[in-house]
User: Which sequence fits this backbone?
């Protein structure tokens, strides 16, 4: 990975959860426009249980952070 890409990742890690979600949506939109029409496998293999566990951990961590920052009604 290039140093430029690494620097971008470091900046992303510091974003608040709401901005991070907006960033992911925009990245998904832009990447989907650039992918070829033919389906491709990004990993070359199906996701493993460890992949899914890590994705769930990150998702719940983001939700917990959002809940901590929420204003009471």
Assistant:
């Amino acid at each position: 990975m290039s140093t430029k890409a690494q620097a971008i990742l470091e900046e992303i890690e510091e974003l608040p959860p709401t901005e991070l979600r907006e960033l992911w949506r925009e990245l998904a939109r832009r990447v989907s426009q650039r992918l070829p029409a033919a389906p491709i496998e990004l990993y070359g293999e199906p996701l493993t249980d460890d992949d899914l566990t890590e994705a769930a951990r990150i998702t719940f961590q983001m939700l917990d952070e959002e809940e901590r920052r929420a204003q009471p009604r």
The chain has a mean pLDDT of 83. Residues 26 and 32 are 10 Å apart (CA to CA). The radius of gyration is 15 Å. The chain has one domain: 3-69.
